[in-house]
Amino acid sequence: MDSRKWIERFAAVIDERGAELTELDRRAGDGDFGTNLRSALGRVRANLAADDPSTPDEVFTAVSTAFLNTGGTSGPLFGMWFREFAKGLGDEVSIRSLAAAAGEAEAVVRRLGGAEVGHKTMVDAMVPAAEALAAAASRGADVETALKEAAAAADAGARSTAELLAKRGRASYVGEHARGVVDPGALTVAWFFEAATAA
Ligand code: ADP
Ligand code: MG
Ligand code: MG
C-alpha cells in the first residue's frame, strides 16, 4: 500500500464529488462541508509538494496538519483521526499497525466529539471500518483485502446514517428535517477507505 497514492486518490475523489457532500450538509447542516474538505485537501496537496513525504507516518502527518488547520467541526476531528494513522503506521503499512491505528483513531474522535455509533456522524463509518480491520488482522488477512472490507463496512455505516436522527453536530438542530439524509462526514470516511482500494 502506497499511502501517498492513497491520499492523492482520496483528494481526487473529493475534487470530483465534493459538491455531493456540500448538498448533504446543506440539507442537514450549514452547507460548508464540501468547501471545508476541499480547502483541507488543498493544504494536503501543498504539504505533500513542500515536504515530499514518502513513508506513511510522514504522509499522514502532512494530512493531519492540513485538517487541523481547517475550519468547521470536521476539520479538527479529521485532523485528530489522521494523526493516529500517522502515529501508528510508521514507515510501512502493515495489517496489524493499520488495525491498531484505526482503533485508536476512532476512539480519539469519539472522545473529542462525544458522538457514539448511531448519532449520525463520521463515527458511524469510522467504527465499523476499524472493526473490519481488526477482524481482518486477527485472521491474518493481507492489507489490500482488509482495506476492501473496511471500505465496505464504512460504506454500510455511512448509508445507515440516512435513517437516523442526529444526536451530535448541526444535523441535530434540524431534527426530522435531516431524516433521509446521509451524513456527509460518514460518507467521506467511506470514500477514504475506497480510495485505498483504488490506489
Ligand atoms: P460544521 O457543522 O461546523 O459546519 P462541518 O460541515 O465541517 O462542520 O462537518 C460536519 C460533519 O462533522 C458532520 O457530517 C459529522 O460527520 C461531523 N460531526 C459533527 N459533529 C460531530 C461530533 N460531535 N462528533 C463527530 N463528528 C461530528
Ligand atoms: Mg457544515
Ligand atoms: Mg460550518
TrEMBL record:
<dbReference type="InterPro" id="IPR036117">
    <property type="entry name" value="DhaL_dom_sf"/>
</dbReference>
<protein>
    <submittedName>
        <fullName>Dihydroxyacetone kinase-like protein</fullName>
        <ecNumber>2.7.1.-</ecNumber>
    </submittedName>
</protein>
<keyword id="KW-0808">Transferase</keyword>
<dbReference type="InterPro" id="IPR050861">
    <property type="entry name" value="Dihydroxyacetone_Kinase"/>
</dbReference>
<dbReference type="GO" id="GO:0016740">
    <property type="term" value="F:transferase activity"/>
</dbReference>
<feature type="domain" description="DhaL">
    <location>
        <begin position="1"/>
        <end position="198"/>
    </location>
</feature>
<dbReference type="InterPro" id="IPR004007">
    <property type="entry name" value="DhaL_dom"/>
</dbReference>
<dbReference type="Pfam" id="PF02734">
    <property type="entry name" value="Dak2"/>
</dbReference>
<dbReference type="InterPro" id="IPR012737">
    <property type="entry name" value="DhaK_L_YcgS"/>
</dbReference>
<keyword id="KW-0418">Kinase</keyword>
